[in-house]
Amino acid sequence: MPGFEEVNYYFRKAARVMDLSSAVERMLVTPYREVKVDVSITMDNGELGTFIGYRVQHDRSRGPMKGGLRYHKTVDLDEALGLASLMTWKTAVVNLPYGGAKGGIAVDPDHLSPGELERLTRKFVQQIHEIIGPQTDIPAPDVNTNAQVMAWIMDEYSKMHGFSPAVVTGKPVDLFGSRGREEATGRGAVFALEEYLKDAKQGEVRGKTFAIQGFGNVGSWAARFLHERGGKVIAVSDVKGGVRNPEGLDIPRLIAHQAQQKTVTGFPGSDSISNEDLLLLPVDVLVPAALGGVITEANVKDIRARLILEAANAPTTPQADEALVNNGVTVLPDIYVNAGGVTVSYFEWAQNIQQFTWEEDKVNAELHRHMRDAYATLARVVRERKVSFRTAAFIVAIGRVGRATVLRGV
After folding, report:
1. Span 324-361, pLDDT tens digits
2. Fold of 33-175
3. Which class is 184-337 in CATH?
4. Coil, strand, or helix at residue 211?
5. Residue from 401, 399, 394, 407 nearest 14 by CA
6. Which of 92, 99, 30, 97 is nearest to 397 (CA)?
7. CA–CA distance from 370 to each of 112, 349, 364 (Å)?
8. Does residue 292 contact residue 2 with C-beta atoms inside 8 Å?
9. Nearest to 90 by CA among 395, 339, 399, 319
10. How do residues 111-150 score in pLDDT, each as one tens digit?
11. What is the enclosing helix (H) or strand (E) of 160?
12. Helical packing angle, 340-354 and 184-199, nearest 10°
């Protein structure tokens, strides 16, 4: 996963193009707050389980801080710092009135019962409730957390602060969540791709080939939308392995297979393929939609796709990113491509604040507008500055955050 220094590498690259002073750089990079808490619960067997929770709040110049909570054994402070800063730049790229935050608990949720998971979540809220809130810091789902976890967070926070549906986003629709939120990141990624193809005069999604690493929430929805538009998804993978069919996978059937088997592996009419080999397939578009750091110095020279759609957070290391640019590969970066999730989270938060529900057509139309407008801005900076899309995204984000910081007063 991306560490703080990896994200700051991209930040500094853009800052050099912008000719920022070292003092301004340091101010914009420095996190607002870092919190590390003990989360101890009674396990089902009566023993004490102790876990470490994190919440990093990176920047609040443009509004309340926003970012996911993940439950994963790799969660640590450096990862939270990197992801929190990514959220600052991501929300600025799509021009949302938010800053960035991130966090979670270092735990393998596969080893927890539903009761243990609920107790862990509620205890975590008890430890951080004073630093989150609808106008302060609004968590959301991330790796291994979902709508049910968000419902527990809302309920626990509301016990201490009064009814507060806007304290988290990604809640169940029956508990003040937003229609269209579940599929928003995958849908937004496809909107981003369509904007690029139109701008680059490369036609439509129809007939193009795709390989998708990661078939969780983001990857599976992206696959569904690409398939519906006539794209040929020839390979997908999850943590247990991957499947491939050069003629194109039947995505609706594959989604049903995964729901039943809890994996894409073993899908009838396909060959098996590893996560590593999937990245090297000769497809039109490669979609890394799993964890970060999968395109590296070790494999970048063997990447054959000419367009990479970064649906995951930080799937490309800085060294690999340089190599891709030098090799003429176009990378649509994570802080733009996967911003659909946080954009619809913003819509959910706005609905909660207003106590007024939007229809799904409005949610999707507003998401499309945000992704379209953000792309137009990025493409303009790419042409004017003669930089990559990633550097352009950071230039746009740094400019917006920097101006807000200066206008509010240092």
Report:
1. 999 999 999 999 999 999 999 999 999 999 999 999 99
2. Rossmann fold (3.40.50)
3. alpha beta
4. strand
5. 394
6. 92
7. 38, 16, 10
8. yes
9. 339
10. 999 999 999 999 999 999 999 999 999 999 988 999 999 9
11. helix 147-161
12. 130
β-strands 241-244, 271-273: how paired? antiparallel
Tokens of 355: 């106590």
Query: Strand 33-42 and strand 48-59: pairing?
Result: antiparallel
Q: What is the band of 2 on the pLDDT scale with cuts at 50, 70, 90?
A: low
CA angle 246-251-256, nearest 5°? 130
* Angle at 210 (CA atoms; ends 330, 364), nearest 5 degrees: 85
How sure is the predictor about 1, in pLDDT bands with cuts at 50, 70 and 90? low
Q: How many CA atoms lie within 13 A of 47 on its CB side?
A: 4
Point out the residues that are catalytic.
102
Q: How far apart are CA 256 and CA 244, in angstroms?
A: 16
The residues, any chain, with a CB within 8 Å of residue 304's CB and separated by 6 or more, are 280, 281, 282, 283
The DSSP output letter for 234 is: E
Strands 307-309 and 285-288: parallel
CB-CB contact of 347 with 170 (8 Å):
no
Give the length of the chain: 410
pLDDT (0 to 100) of residue 171: 98
pLDDT, tens only, 308-325: 999 998 899 999 999 999
Please report, for the chain, the start and end positions of each structural domain, with discontinuous segments joined by +. 33-175, 184-337
Q: Where are the beta strands (DSSP E) in 106-226?
A: 137-141, 209-213
pLDDT digits 0-9 by tens, 32-51: 999 999 999 999 999 999 99
Q: Is 37 helix (H, G, I), strand (E, B) or coil?
A: strand
Q: Do domains 33-175 and 184-337 have the same CATH topology?
A: yes
